Amino acid sequence: MSFEEEVRDLIAKGPGELKDPAWRFDAFTNREVLHDKKKGHLPAMGWNGWNAFGSGNTEALTIAMAEKLRELGLDQLGYKYVVLDDGCYQPYRKDGKIQNEETKFPSGFRALADRLHQMGLKFGMYNDIGTNLCAGAAVGTCGHEKTDAASYAEWDVDFLKVDNCYYLWDNATFSDAANARYVYAPNVAGISVKGEGLDLTLSAVKDGEIFGERAEKKENYVTCIGTFDGTGPAASPVGMRSGELRFVIRAPKEMECDLTIDYATGKEEGVGSWLQLALGEGSGAELIWDGFVPETDGTESFVTSKPFQLHLKAGENLLRVMNHRRQENTLHSYAAMLEGLNLAQPGRDVILSICEWGKTHPQNWGWKVGDSWRILNDITFRVGADGDPGHGAWESDYTTSVTSQYNKAVIMDEFAGLDKGWNDPDMMMIGMDDLTETMCKTHFTMWSMMNSPLMLGMDLRRMEKGDTYWNIVSNEEIIALNQDALGVQAKRIYASKMTEESGKVGTRPDQTYVRDNDRVDVLAKPLADGSVAISFINISQNDKTEETAVDVALILQYLGEKMADRDAFAKAKSFTVKDLWTGEMTVNETGRFAVSRLEACDNVTVKVTPNA
C-alpha cells in the first residue's frame, strides 16, 4: 500500500470508537493513569537538537554535543538526555518501518544509542502522532504505533518526543483545515423530546444553557460547541477550555423517549459535524451518540436529525450536547504510543514528552500518559542552521518568546506534580542570539522554579566552562529547585499588575492570566527540606525601583499544605536567607522578604530556611 493509499484508508476508518469510559472527557479528573504510566519522574534535563540545528542535525553533531556535555561537566549536574528532533529519518518507511537518514546518521540509531550510553548519557528520539513529521517526512506514528515502538525498543531509546503535525483528527498545523469537522459539534437550533406522553420542543437559545467557555449563542442557534485551540497565547489555561450546550429535561416518570436535534454542519473553526450526546455528567454519564451526523448544505441550513433514544428517569435529566473529541482523540493517539512502548519493552521506563503545542489543553489529560506536555506553540521559529546559532526573544505577541511561554506556564502549577507530570514551555533559548545575559539568567530561573523540563537548545560549542552561559546553566542551587524531591511547581503569590486585555481578570495571582509584561511577579516554591524558594522577577524590559515584598502569612496562604513542614515555617523566629545567584547569606527576623530594585528582565531568587 502506498503512503497516499494508507492515508486514505486511515481517513475512511476515522478516529475510531472510544468504548472505554477511561478515555472520555468525564474521566479527565479521575486521577487514574492509562497503560500503567510511570509516576514520580522529576523534570527531564538534557539537550535537544532543534533550536541549534533545526532539521539539519547529524550524527556527528549529536556526538559533538554529547562530548561537550561531558567536557563542561553538565552531565554530572543532571543533563543526561541527548534528544534527536525532526530531520533524522528517511522520508518514507521501508518495509513499513522508520529508518535512519543514511547521510546524516550513517551508523544507525542503535549505534548512536550505544555510543551515548557508553558516555553515561541517555538517548532520545522524535516522532509525530500524525501521518507526517513537521518537516514533511511521511513517517508519522499514526497507525504504526506498535511497529515504531518496537523500533525504539530495538534502538534502546530512553526518551521520546512526539509532535502533532499532520494530525488527521484535528485541524493541526499542515493538516487539512476541513478536519475541523471532527473538532466541533454542528450548530444547534433546538431539540425535541417525545414519548409516553412527553412532547417537548426546546430552543437552544432560549431554553439551553451554555456550560464552559467555548460555545456561544447567536440569534437563532448555538455555535462553537467544542474546545478552544490552545496553540496560541490568547486564552487562559485555567478553567474549562471547552463548551457544551445543556438542557434540563423534566420527566413525570421513568420513560423511553426519542430525541431529535435541529442542526447544521460545517468544516471550519467553530462548526463541524461530529456530535456527542450524553445524559448526566461525570462517572455516571451515559453516552447516547458519538459520531458524525449527515452533512447539511451550509452552516445555517438546519435539518432535523434521526431520532436518538433516551432513557429518562423521573424528575430532572441533564442532556449534554457537546464535542470533546479534540481532547479525547489526541489523548487516544498519545496513549497508543505509550501502549506500544509498554508492549515492546514491558517494565521499561521511557520518558514520553507530549509535544502538541497546548492545542488540546493537555494540562487536563496529559498526565494520564505523558511525563510532560508542551503548553504552547514553539518558543522560537528562528532556529539555527549553517553556523547561525538561532535567535530568541524576551517578549512577543505570539508564543515565540520567554515571557509568552512563562505567562501561561506560571499559572499552571496545579496541573503539575510528581503524581502527574510537568508543564513544558519548550526548550530553553539560553545561548541563542538576541537574549542578554540577564534575560538568560531569568529564563533559567523561571524554568527551574516552574519545574519545567530543562532542555538546553543551544549549540554547546558556543559554551566554555566558566563563561556566562555555563555559569547560568550550571548553577547547582537553581537546578536543585527544579529537581527538588518534593516536586511542587512554584506558585505565583504576587503580581504587581493584574490587568489582561482578553479573558476574565481574577483576584488571585496564581490563577489570573496576565500578559501585560510591565510588572513584577513573586513566585514561591516549597522545598523538601522545609525551606521555601522565593523569586522576585521583573518581567518588564524597564528597571523597577519600587519595593516588592511578601511575608510569611502570604506564603502560607498560597502554599499551605504543599509545604514539607508548614508549622516549622510558620513558627520560626528567624530565617536564613541565601541569594541563589550571588551566594550572599543574611538572617531575616521579620518574616517579611523584599527587594527594593530590579533591573530590566532581572530576578532575585532566594532560599528561605526557617531557623529552629
Q: Explain this structure to me?
A:
- It is a single chain.
- The protein is an alpha+beta fold.
- The chain folds into 3 domains: about 45-175 and about 330-480, Aldolase class I (TIM Barrel, Alpha-Beta Barrel), CATH 3.20.20; about 185-320, Jelly Rolls (Sandwich), CATH 2.60.120.260; about 490-610, Sandwich (Immunoglobulin-like).
- About 20% of the residues lie in helices and about 25% in strands.
- The protein contains 13 helices and 28 strands.
- The strands form 6 sheets. It has an 8-stranded parallel sheet with strand order 19-18-17-4-3-2-1-20. Strands 21-22-23-28-25-26 form a 6-stranded antiparallel sheet.
- α4 links the parallel β2 (about 80-85) and β3 (about 120-130).
- α5 (about 145-155) packs across α7 and α9 packs parallel to α11.
- It is globular and about 80 Å long.
**Fold-level CATH name of the largest domain:** TIM Barrel
Supply the CATH class of the largest domain: Alpha Beta
CATH superfamily of the largest domain: Aldolase class I
Structural class: alpha+beta
> How confident is the prediction overall: mean pLDDT?
96
Radius of gyration in whole Å, from Cα?
26 Å
Taking strands numbered 1, 2, ... along the chain, how are they ordered across the largest sheet? Answer: 19-18-17-4-3-2-1-20
Count of domains: 3
Instruction: Report the β-strand fraction as a percent range.
Output: 15-25%
Poorly predicted tracts of residues: none
Architecture of the largest domain, CATH level 2? Alpha-Beta Barrel
Largest sheet at a glance?
A: 8 strands, parallel
Please report the total strand number as a whole number. 28
Total number of helices: 13
Helix content: 10-25%
The end-to-end distance, rounded to whole angstroms, is: 72 Å
Broad shape:
globular
